[in-house]
Structure to design on (767 residues):
């Protein structure tokens, strides 16, 4: 037992445990305190909430703001927009719920000190597009973190949560979580009446375009390790739309965002020969998806589709025409500050390659796929909807509670609610936080029951990669090659290669089919077995080992969902080559999965889509 | 590297270690100064660069696509409430930018517990904290259950 017996176990009891201190987690922490004045509210984060999550680096826009006070948009308008962009499939009850609350969140951000730009003529927030407002958001995350720190009973930084704990006396009820401190190696057992998962979506499950030093410059943060999905999946929560991965059209190599360029700077794309290309692919796309191509704005995946077809036809690279807009010094400043505020790496790429967009039209590319629930796609857990109007199929308990009792989620974790972005994720955290307080109040004095056998077993599991390394390392002279273990980076690269080649990554032109998916699942199964032989040299590698575990579970879920949906709903995000067309007769529905951790089986089912009818 | 640390400027204070979201800034045991131990998991987010009191951390763009000779420097001044950027191209051209980062004093956010305690009635409503006032409209919008229907639209 050597390694395990030396490790301290620290017990932390709370009423509400928030896992992940990004935008959603900070919102959940803030709101839990507002409604639960006497409750013990604990937030646990694997990094430091001051700069953690997808907003660590800052943002230059808030992409979800209605502007109801100026009668700019109503919540139902945003629902129609998200529905349209996702080819008809979003949880409209949840999306409406975020949209009706999100303005109050943004007003609070401004009161807290976030510099929001204003239109000098109207005095209203400066719009970048219909839904986006422009901010000087370098310190967006530190500001939001300050609010969360004021609210929490305690914030635990640098603890990676590896598993949820289930109640020993009640089936299908969550009772806490376990994890380890990535600095000290102490093992933590968190016991809680309600748990809110606000962890991150999944980067690095598909092979990225840069595989050398630049592999860290993924579009979504490299620390977004799919914990948003792995934690609920292992607890038996139902997941939805996990096949709905996202591919981003971005500036090449730095993945600098294009939103402000298209919407505010009015730049536009052209092929290598200076021609407009999107309209050329209209008839072709209409054959695949019918009248979805006629909707406005054109769904993002279909614009990607035209980009991909044009490049495949040999007329790449596609470029963004910036030379006109950048002659205006004000617009030039916005173009640069946009990157410096949220994707500094793009400024580094341009500086290094002498790309001054005033004189050169920069190249665009399409990214590797990502799985996430807060940006423009909606993978995540299947959650109960708002009490005042959600249909009965969408309502079985408290708002944002998953199909596991006492387990709530927000942000990347909750499925079906695309286009929430930073402000919507914080807002969804607030909704979940309030609901969790109600849940805890209704529970009364009942305490969660955690089995010592369960957490002691998990302790052994969590530190096993260090044991594997210590034992296996003695077999070999040195180096990274061992017959007894693989390192986390080895496992990560194998995962990325499998997903890339079999599940619709860049080298397969985002295409897959049933035989490919079947083979992919076989290889993922072997990787799953090999993860029992991960070797971690130190605590840092142990963190990487558990991030890999979470990524693999998310990837298995993605692959099963992709297999289940026998249509191509989102060409431009991925293609089921054996079912190349959109099929509303059979697939105008959500896909749901449930993983049985005892049997290792995945059960798939369909769930109905309710629309707001005009 | 992408981030790297200048030997003569780093004093080993550990601010970068404390802030790095990717957990890759560590203190080197021999030199007792900071080092990026896993450059291929660096997002170039500049959290460590901004946090360094000695300006000892810089970024050299990813070797697999960024030619040498560039520099993007940041100076974040909390007291002034600004961040300043200096972008130097490989060809020597230079651009400078300054942006505000916060409009209120650091530490000034009010705890949610410092607001008047909500009523039981409010807890059972659909309003979240500070609503409806913070919406700047009269009341929280809501759908009627009969507005949600099955079908393809």
């Amino acid at each position: 037992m050597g390694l395990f017996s030396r490790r301290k176990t620290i017990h932390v009891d709370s009423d509400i445990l928030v896992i992940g201190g990004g935008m959603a987690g900070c919102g959940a922490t803030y709101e839990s305190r507002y409604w639960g004045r006497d409750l013990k509210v604990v937030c646990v984060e694997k990094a430091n909430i001051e700069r953690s999550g997808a907003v660590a680096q800052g943002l230059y826009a808030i992409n979800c703001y209605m502007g109801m006070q100026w009668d700019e948009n109503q919540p139902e308008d945003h629902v129609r927009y998200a529905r349209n962009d996702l080819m008809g499939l979003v949880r409209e009850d949840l999306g409406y719920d975020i949209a009706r609350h999100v303005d109050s969140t943004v007003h609070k951000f401004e009161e807290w000190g976030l510099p929001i730009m204003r239109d000098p003529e109207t005095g209203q927030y400066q719009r970048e597009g219909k839904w986006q407002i422009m901010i000087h958001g370098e310190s967006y995350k530190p500001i939001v973190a300050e609010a969360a720190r004021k609210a929490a009973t305690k914030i635990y930084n640098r603890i990676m949560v590896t598993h949820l704990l289930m109640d020993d006396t009640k089936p299908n009820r969550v009772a806490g979580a376990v994890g380890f401190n990535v600095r000290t190696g102490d093992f933590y057992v968190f016991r809680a009446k309600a748990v809110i998962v606000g962890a991150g979506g999944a980067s690095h499950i598909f092979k990225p375009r840069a595989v050398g030093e630049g592999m860290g410059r993924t579009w979504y943060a490299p620390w977004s390790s799919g914990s948003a999905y792995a934690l609920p999946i292992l607890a038996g929560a139902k997941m939805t739309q996990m096949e709905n991965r996202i591919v981003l059209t971005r500036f090449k190599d730095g993945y600098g965002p294009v939103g402000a360029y298209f919407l505010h700077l009015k730049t536009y794309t052209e092929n290598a020969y200076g021609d407009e290309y999107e309209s050329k692919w209209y008839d072709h796309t209409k054959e695949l998806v019918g009248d979805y191509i006629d909707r406005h704005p054109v769904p993002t995946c279909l614009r990607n589709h035209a980009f991909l077809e044009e490049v495949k036809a040999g007329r790449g690279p596609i470029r963004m025409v910036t030379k006109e807009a950048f002659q205006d010094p004000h617009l030039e400043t916005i173009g640069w500050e946009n990157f410096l505020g949220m994707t500094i790496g793009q400024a580094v790429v341009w500086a290094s390659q002498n790309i001054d967009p005033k004189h050169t039209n920069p190249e665009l590319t399409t990214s590797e796929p990502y799985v996430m629930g807060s940006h423009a796609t909606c993978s995540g857990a299947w959650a109960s909807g708002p009490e005042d109007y959600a249909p009965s199929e969408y309502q079985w308990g408290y708002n944002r509670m998953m199909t596991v009792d006492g387990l709530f989620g927000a942000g990347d974790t909750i499925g079906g609610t695309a286009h929430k972005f930073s402000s919507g994720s914080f807002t969804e955290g607030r909704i979940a936080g309030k609901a969790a307080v109600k849940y805890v109040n209704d529970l009364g004095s009942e305490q969660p029951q955690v089995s010592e056998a369960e957490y002691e077993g998990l302790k052994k599991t969590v530190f096993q990669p260090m044991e594997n390394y210590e034992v296996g390392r003695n077999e070999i002279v040195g180096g990274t090659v061992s017959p007894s273990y693989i390192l986390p980076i080895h496992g990560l690269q194998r995962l990325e290669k499998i997903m890339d080649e079999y599940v619709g990554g860049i080298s397969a032109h985002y295409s897959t089919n049933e035989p490919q998916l079947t083979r992919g699942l076989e290889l993922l199964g072997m990787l799953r077995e090999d993860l029992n032989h991960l070797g971690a040299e130190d605590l840092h590698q142990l963190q990487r080992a558990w991030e890999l575990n979470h990524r693999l579970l998310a990837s298995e879920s993605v692959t099963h969902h992709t297999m289940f949906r026998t249509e191509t709903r989102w060409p431009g995000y991925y293609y089921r080559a054996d079912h190349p067309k959109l099929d509303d007769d059979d697939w105008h529905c959500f896909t749901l999965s449930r993983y049985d951790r005892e049997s290792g089986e995945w059960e798939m089912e369909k769930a109905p889509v309710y629309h707001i009818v005009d | 590297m992408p981030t790297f640390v200048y030997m003569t400027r780093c004093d080993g204070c550990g601010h970068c270690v404390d802030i790095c979201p990717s957990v890759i800034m560590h203190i080197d045991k021999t030199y007792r100064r900071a080092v990026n131990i896993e450059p291929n998991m660096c997002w170039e987010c500049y959290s460590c660069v901004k946090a360094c009191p000695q300006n000892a951390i810089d970024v050299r763009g990813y070797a697999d696509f960024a030619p040498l000779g560039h520099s993007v420097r940041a100076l974040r001044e909390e007291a002034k409430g600004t961040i300043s950027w200096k972008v130097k191209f490989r060809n020597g051209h230079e651009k400078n930018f300054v942006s505000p980062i916060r409009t209120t004093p650091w530490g000034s956010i009010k705890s949610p517990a410092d607001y008047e305690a909500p009523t039981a009635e409010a807890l059972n409503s659909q309003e979240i904290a500070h609503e409806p006032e913070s919406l700047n409209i009269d009341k929280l919008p809501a759908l009627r259950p009969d507005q949600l229907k099955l079908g393809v639209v």
In short: Chain A has a mean pLDDT of 97. The longest strand of chain A covers residues 9-19.
